Amino acid sequence: MRPAIDLPTTPALPVTAPSIEQISINTIRTLSMDGVQAANSGHPGTPMALAPVAYSLWQQFLRFDPQDPVWPNRDRFVLSIGHASMRLVVSMPSCELFDDQAKDYRESVLPPQVRARVSVEAASDFGWSKYTGSEGCSICIETFGASAPLKQLLKKFGFSVDHVVTAAKDQIALHKPRN
């Protein structure tokens, strides 16, 4: 029989509940992993690493009201990190400001060789075709004067995760290089 060993004891560290900020950042990281897994494409490293940046932008700088997602003066976020993202997501705060940028920049955000494009606009799709191209897809409100509770309108016009994912998959399949 071995002799008992007295191990030094260390004082217990205080247990503190994570802050809402840390919970939110960890949720963004988890969604990044889930998104890559669901898409079977991309790499979660960069979106996970940038989760604190995304959280800070949305909490401290961007004007957005989740209770009013179609607010005309809302800010939108442009993310263009190429192969490091799950899929390239571009959100345009102002078409005019984007169009005023140098051509090299515009093409780095919307590379001409990438033709699989989907726009999502909780209003008219007017003008979006110049960004999606003639073969792109726009999820938008295609009629004037639609009136109903917001959740009903969003469902009627296809503003759901499933519909956007289906449109994106259709675009990818349509523009997949043929061997």
Question: What's the short story on this structure?
Answer:
This protein is mainly alpha-helical.
Task: Note the main attributes of this structure.
single chain, about 180 residues, Rossmann fold, 2 domains, 2 strands, elongated
Query: Helical region count?
Result: 8
Note the main sheet: 2 strands, parallel
Number of strands: 2
Our count of domains comes out at 2
* SS strand fraction: under 5%
Mean pLDDT: 75
Radius of gyration based on Cα positions: 22 Å
Strand order of the largest sheet: 1-2
Helix-residue proportion: 40-55%
Structural class determined from secondary elements: mainly alpha
Q: What is the overall silhouette?
A: elongated
Helices and strands, in order, run as: HHHHHEHEHH
Low-confidence stretches: none
Distance between termini? 70 Å
Describe this structure in words.
With 179 residues, the protein is mainly α. 41% of the residues lie in helices and 4% in strands. It is built from eight helices and two strands; from the N terminus they run αααααβαβαα. The protein has helices at 20-39, 45-49, 51-61, 95-99, 103-109, 129-132, 150-156, 161-174; strands at residues 118-121, 137-140. The longest helix is centred in the N-terminal third of the chain and has 20 residues, at 20-39.
Topology, pairings included?
Elements: H1 20-39, H2 45-49, H3 51-61, H4 95-99, H5 103-109, E1 118-121, H6 129-132, E2 137-140, H7 150-156, H8 161-174
Parallel strand pairs: 1-2
